[in-house]
């Protein structure tokens, strides 16, 4: 592992573990459909996209973390919902969240497939689930086998 990567990982660990919570109150919430709320009011998608870039999962809890602040986020199910995906080449895929953010993954092996949902772990340990239409499309393309 390169010195640069080790330094980056140490900085990230310090940022996520050592930044103090600004308040114990939960100001942000992400519902089961991936919609964001601030103080129980819907958050415009442009702000949700911005805040999703500083969303981290740490020890099973979600936080918005900057070098100066840390806020707890209540997540009902998964913070991100995948609404589309596309195979880029033999080894990679792009997945698109309901916020319109594209994430690159290595392939279908990255998905955690269960009877009730198909999920994926993305950057900063954030989890995403396939939305309903994507779920059925994924099942048809990768799970069901014609006899």
From TrEMBL:
Residues 28-77 form the DUF1285 domain. It comes from Shewanella woodyi (strain ATCC 51908 / MS32). It comes from the Bacteria. The lineage of its organism: Bacteria, Pseudomonadati, Pseudomonadota, Gammaproteobacteria, Alteromonadales. Gene3D superfamilies: duf1285 like domain, duf1285 protein. It holds the Pfam family DUF1285_N. This is DUF1285 domain-containing protein.
